[in-house]
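Next comes this protein.

***
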Amino acid sequence: MSDWPSEHPRRPASATFHTASYVTLAGADWLASADPCPESVHARWAACPDAPSTLPCGSVFDVINAPALFGRELVDRLWTAGPGSGPVATHRGRILLFAEPGTARRLPALLAWEEWSASVPPLLCHGTGDAVTVPPLFPHRPARPDPPYGTPTAPTGDAPTPEPDRPDATSRWLVAPDVRHPWLPGPGTLLWACIRAARRVHTGGAEPAADAPDSSAPAL
């Protein structure tokens, strides 16, 4: 696989990987539009804004579900050497990349033609007929009760103690939806990123030399 072709469109130059961790109103409208009854989704969010939700795939977006370490490398390749990404979430130790509808069907077929596909860990591709759990719209920050009298408190500046019972402890946005029509990577973009990530992991983090694109893969 070659370096990302310059003729392919990129995300706006102002976009960075470290985006807001919460969903904007426009982003919530986009997420809700995946459900046949978006009003009911908004009603659930209004009642429990800090609870995860389940949304169907296939019409508004597909989701590529990757193991955490490979998924983070995949997102890093998209942002540092590629066109960026659409929304990205983490849920129960895995990375969820939101992609163009149809990607869940085409990506596995494209990967099957790549010589580096054996180095790509199993990916769960969620498309038509599937549903995924998405993180809460907002990070959950419960009020901390006053500690019992005599309990020592951490000095100012110390890192807070993790709270394993938080609803979003295993589900949060890395790149939260923030517009009504977000750009989503397609199967070709994610194929490129998967191969680059696999080669980078295989070489221990060294950037592999670019080579010519593989012309043997069929057009789907």
